[in-house]
Amino acid sequence: MFSKTFTLARLRTAPMQQRVLQLHTARPLLFKASSPRALFGDEVPNPATVPLPAANRLKGSYHWMNERAVSLISLPLLATAFVYGSHPINDMLMGIVLPVHVYMMFEQVLTDYFHARRWPIVSRVLKYSLVAMAGLAMFGAWRINTTDVGLTNYCSRLWNANKKIKKEEQ
User: The pTM is what?
Assistant: First the structure.
């Protein structure tokens, strides 16, 4: 592309079309290695010593189908709350389905970013704290539904609280 006699002064004065330089992103020998040991040395784990996760029929495709089912169940519940307003059965179902939906989505985030093989202690702590938070969310939804106005009215009050404050100030 450039001759060996190409100098920096000529690069500064050259038009933009001639200033194109090659982009080198990696060492060429990195991709020519024949084995992982040649690339990483002795840090490569032996596949026989890496523990495999136990087979579980709730993981994998069943987990994906359960996530989609919970998402589909939550749509009519939310639509019913918007159209008809507060109803005790709908509020109780939302108090179960929405925390389960949030739990399943955050569980997937933890599985992707804090894998148990790489961070065994952190993964376990985050998993248990996620279960505890989902349980607390269900308990809080149950308390709002049984001793207060229900989830739909509660969310409506939160949504309109700023409007009430502005009316009272005037």
Answer: 0.62
